[in-house]
Design brief:
- The chain is of the alpha+beta class.
- It folds into 2 domains: 197 residues, Isoleucyl-tRNA Synthetase, Domain 1, CATH 1.10.730.10; 90 residues, Nucleic acid-binding proteins (OB fold (Dihydrolipoamide Acetyltransferase, E2P), Beta Barrel), CATH 2.40.50.
- A 5-stranded antiparallel beta sheet has the order 3-2-1-4-7.
- A hairpin with a 2-residue loop joins strand 1 and strand 2.
- Helix 2 crosses helix 6 and helix 8 packs antiparallel against helix 9.
- The protein is elongated and about 110 Å long.
């Protein structure tokens, strides 16, 4: 992203192609706290596929699908507080680190700890192989699934501040009728909410199951890469053109000294300045010129704020015939020079006692 070079990934276009939660996670996991950070399509793809899809999404879908298939969509066993420690190592410590990071507004650390918890959950399900113990030790398989489903519940709460739409989908699949935004009261400790299991034996899941994250293929990113390449090329060409010196403007036809002496250039001092209604480029100035005050309209509003001109000396064409602009009479012209970027710079003489004096 570069404002000065005029290239970026635009949010509206992004959300037409990818779910908002994918972007939310990518921003959170790379969240800059003390420095700028970069967004890259490659990192976005890798994190979506490897973390959101293969870790979080894979665990939740496997746990819910197996329960729906083998246990009639019902939590098949109790999951007590001690089961967290007995069945899952590092779970409580991970929850504590996550809660501390989030409550301290360390967004990147919170997102990192949240994904670590998803990895722990995914590893727990894989290592305990309930699809195998279902045939040999039905009670162990049931306990594994009770713990896994409660981990799904906890992960929904954990990920809600980061990917709220996905977290609510997990709650819906678990058959929890209370919305996540109503789950944790502001005065309650998040860690206390997370450390205890919530789904009791006999709780009925919704029976629904869906893939939480669709993997991003290389072909999905090819158009986006081409857009960035085109923006970079345009920025480079613009910078190259700006670096090349502009050709000198041709000198106007020769005039005589008599012609020049007809132009009365004087030093005035700006007393007041304000914008002209419905005219983006115009400022209305009150200029002290010797013993008289003049009203002059100047096309310098894009280069100067009105308050920055107060008290400033300017050179004006004092004998220019008055004319009306936007309903106001302009009694002269302010002399300015245009820079390479289109910004105007008024000619501003310095010195004492020069107000009203002619420019020689």
């Amino acid at each position: 992203f570069s404002k000065s070079r005029n290239y970026a990934i635009y949010l509206g276009e992004f959300l037409e192609k990818f779910p908002a939660d994918m972007l939310r996670y990518s921003i959170a996991i790379n969240y800059p706290e003390n420095r700028d950070t970069d967004f890259s399509w490659t990192d976005f793809q890798n994190r979506t596929n490897g973390e959101l899809a293969d870790t979080l999404g894979n665990f939740v879908k496997r746990a819910i699908d197996f329960t729906n298939s083998k246990f009639d969509g019902i939590v098949p066993a109790e999951c007590a507080n001690e089961d967290w420690q007995a069945f899952v190592s590092d779970w409580g410590d991970g929850l504590r680190k996550y809660a501390e990071a989030l409550e301290g507004f360390h967004i990147r650390d919170a997102a990192t700890e949240a994904m670590k918890l998803a990895r722990i959950a995914n590893g727990f399900l894989t290592e305990n192989e309930p699809w195998k113990t279902y045939k040999t030790d039905r009670e162990k398989s049931a306990k594994t699934m009770a713990v896994s489903l409660n981990m799904c519940y906890t992960l929904a709460v954990v990920f809600y501040p980061i990917i709220p739409e996905t977290a609510q989908k997990i709650f819906d699949m678990l058959g929890v009728d209370k919305r996540l935004d109503q789950k944790v009261a502001p005065e309650e400790s998040l860690f206390l909410e997370l450390e205890r299991p919530h789904l009791k034996k006999g709780h009925k899941l919704s029976g629904k199951s869906e893939i939480l994250f669709k993997k991003i293929e290389d072909k999905d990113l090819e158009p986006e890469m081409k857009k960035i390449d085109a923006m970079l090329l345009a920025a480079e060409e613009k910078e190259k053109a700006a670096a090349e010196p502009e050709p000198d403007l041709p000198i106007k036809p020769t005039i005589t000294i008599d012609d020049f002496e007809k132009i009365d250039l004087r030093v005035g001092t700006v007393l007041e300045a304000e914008h002209v209604p419905k005219a983006d480029k115009l400022l209305k100035l009150k200029v002290k010129l010797g013993k008289e005050d003049r009203q002059i309209l100047a096309g310098i509003a894009l280069s100067y704020k009105p308050q920055d001109l107060i008290g400033k000396n300017v050179v004006i064409v004092a004998n220019l015939a008055p004319r009306k602009l936007r309903g106001f009479e302009s009694q002269g012209m302010v002399i300015a020079v245009e820079g390479t970027d289109g910004k105007l710079f008024v000619v501003s003489p310095e010195g004492d006692g020069i107000n009203g004096k002619p420019v020689k």
